[in-house]
Description:
Layout: H1 2-10, H2 15-25, H3 28-36, H4 50-68, H5 74-83, H6 88-91, E1 92-93, E2 99-100, H7 102-106, H8 109-124, H9 129-141, H10 157-180, H11 208-231, H12 233-246, H13 249-265, H14 271-282, H15 285-291
Amino acid sequence: MFENLLAYVDTISSDPLKKLLGAFLNDEKTADLFRRAPAAKGFHHIYLGGLLEHTLSVVRLLDQAAKRYPQLNRDLLIAGGILHDIGKIYEFSYDGLIEYSDEGRMIGHLVMGVEMINKKMEAIGNFPERLALELRHIILSHHGEFEFGSPKRPKTREALVIHFMDDLDAKLNAFDSFVEADAANAGSEWTAYNRFFERYLYKESRPYRLRAAVRQREGFPLAAKALCNKHGKEIFIFCLLLFYFFSPASVASRCFCAILPGTTALGVSPNASTLFSSAMRLRKPESKEKLRIC
């Protein structure tokens, strides 16, 4: 996904914007954090790698919008889409559980993002003032409304479009996640009342699991690698087994689907697969039924 994002940078014709994006994405530390960071803690893309997934999705939507509406500044759209959540690489701590950092709680990613962009612009030198102003406005206004944390509401075409595309991608991801996690109403076409959307959500019959499988395949190895590096593979496998036996079946089944390819990719002994298979057979029959959704 990161390579796909870099490919969009190559399509930008504005030299100042291309230099600015390069200053972020070609920096090894920033690139590593961008690949690992979640996009949020409790609403959308709430997993390692979620920020990159969300950002790429938003940029793809913006690219299509630029084709449909030629009055938009495509370079500014793409640059704003890539950088709109850049402050989130420091807003959260994610070496273990995903939590807010002190800076994240006290300042927030909108202001942090503008501060980061200002530093890069100063280092580049002679960055066009009007372009810098419009890009900073995009970052500060992309939540759309004051009650959602934006100190400014969108006042340019590009800021307005980025706000809507960001909101669209975030809410669809959250919708799918809530539907997937609704174990309490497994036999119903409706979820329980959702406090984020303030409504019941219709599940339909679409295969939401396909999107979940892609997310787990890309996101889980990042989480597994962090745990293994910090605590060792043996502790990691032991924790997985504890989680598998004592968590709700619906949650365990979805995580277990990601565990096997994740551990294989990390070079865990083949005996681990046998151990996991034995654990599956020890679960209750109704839990085994849920496991088949993988």
